[in-house]
């Protein structure tokens, strides 16, 4: 059985790429680095086990619902709580994560059984993460956060940028998932799924490499002279 798809191999590569820099991370970035490593490792495990169940003829949606939707998105919310420093910002993340959890359990109890893929919960969580991404960039452009740093040397800038890129592109795919099951051309569904996976691989590889940014780019702000 082909247990390791190209998608899973690239995610494992992202996990491996993230490991060496962990031992050289400063205290400021170490906790965020751990969260990213957990997200990558969890995603690789879910993809591997999901592939195993699929090839064995078993239902793998429970693995994706718990590992990818519930725990995976929760870890991304936790990453935002580490990226934000202000207490009000951390409370905002906690509030949005609570809303996501309440909706996820309500969705399970009243709308979608555990054996169905919880695309409603994934779409709602994606929407909340996009909102946090916009809030992050709002702080950069209007509150002058990181004004004394080169943004390209800030790991969370890269990670949150690709969070926004991936979830902005995939949000409508997730929210429209039920329509895919009602007569949409299968070839088109396969193409859309492949595109989402490619975008996901790019995001995970950036997450694995993001903490090398301070080594590649100067930490001083970029000054533009006339």
From TrEMBL:
Coiled coil: none annotated. It comes from the Bacteria. It comes from Mongoliibacter ruber. The chain crosses the membrane at residues 6-24, 33-50, 62-80, 92-114, 120-142, 154-175, 195-217. Keywords: Membrane, Transmembrane, Transmembrane helix. This is YhhN-like protein.
């Amino acid at each position: 059985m082909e247990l390791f798809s190209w998608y899973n191999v690239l995610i494992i590569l992202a996990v491996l790429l993230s490991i060496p820099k962990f031992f050289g991370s400063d205290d400021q970035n170490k906790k965020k680095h751990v969260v990213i490593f957990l997200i990558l490792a969890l995603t690789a495990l879910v993809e591997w086990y999901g592939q195993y169940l699929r090839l064995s003829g078993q239902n793998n949606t429970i693995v994706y619902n718990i590992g990818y939707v519930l725990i995976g998105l929760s870890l991304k919310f936790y990453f935002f709580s580490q990226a934000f420093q202000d207490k009000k910002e951390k409370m905002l993340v906690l509030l949005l994560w609570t809303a996501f959890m309440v909706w996820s359990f309500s969705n399970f109890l009243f709308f979608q059984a555990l054996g169905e893929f919880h695309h409603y919960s994934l779409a709602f969580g994606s929407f909340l993460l996009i909102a946090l991404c916009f809030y992050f960039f709002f702080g950069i452009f209007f509150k002058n956060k990181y004004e004394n740093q080169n943004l390209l040397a800030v790991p969370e800038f890269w990670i949150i940028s690709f969070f926004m890129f991936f979830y902005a592109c995939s949000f409508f795919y997730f929210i429209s998932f039920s329509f895919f099951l009602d007569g949409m051309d299968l070839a088109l569904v396969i193409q859309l799924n492949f595109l989402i996976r490619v975008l996901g691989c790019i995001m995970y590889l950036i997450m694995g490499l993001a903490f090398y940014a301070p080594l590649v780019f100067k930490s001083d702000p970029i000054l533009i002279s006339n």
